[in-house]
Amino acid sequence: MLLGVVATVVSTAFQFNIAIELQHRLPSEKRATILSADSMVSALTMGSFYTVYGFAVNALGLAKARLVFALGLLALGLLVKALEVLGPLGEVLKVGHIKREH
After folding, report:
1. What pLDDT digit, counting tens, does each position of 31-74 carry?
2. What is the C-alpha to C-alpha distance for residues 87 and 64, in angstroms, rounded to an integer?
3. How does pLDDT run across 18-35, given as a tens digit for each residue?
4. 3 state DSSP class of 6
5. Share in percent of the chain as helix, strand, coil (round to 5)
6. How far apart are CA 67 and CA 19, in angstroms?
7. How far apart are the C-alpha atoms of 75 and 22, rounded to whole Å?
8. For the chain: N or C, fewer Cβ within 10 A?
């Protein structure tokens, strides 16, 4: 249950960040369609995640399923960070409209 709450909070936080990015990058007439599609994809993703997680809990038990998902998400996070540092995602993940003071 706690994992579901945390996943929902994280999803909500990312949706907020995506909405802010879209505010700066897209004209207003396209924004509503994109945000609607984002919400739909997010709901499908979370539904798929909970379905797979439920089958994993039934097959492995709660503790092992949590461990497998935690390690899988850690590996995914490390992969994204490696792709950012090595170049392929570096330009995509930059936030251009925020000025940084050094």
Report:
1. 777 778 877 888 898 889 889 999 999 999 999 999 999 999 89
2. 34
3. 777 777 777 777 777 777
4. helix
5. 80, 0, 20
6. 31
7. 28
8. C
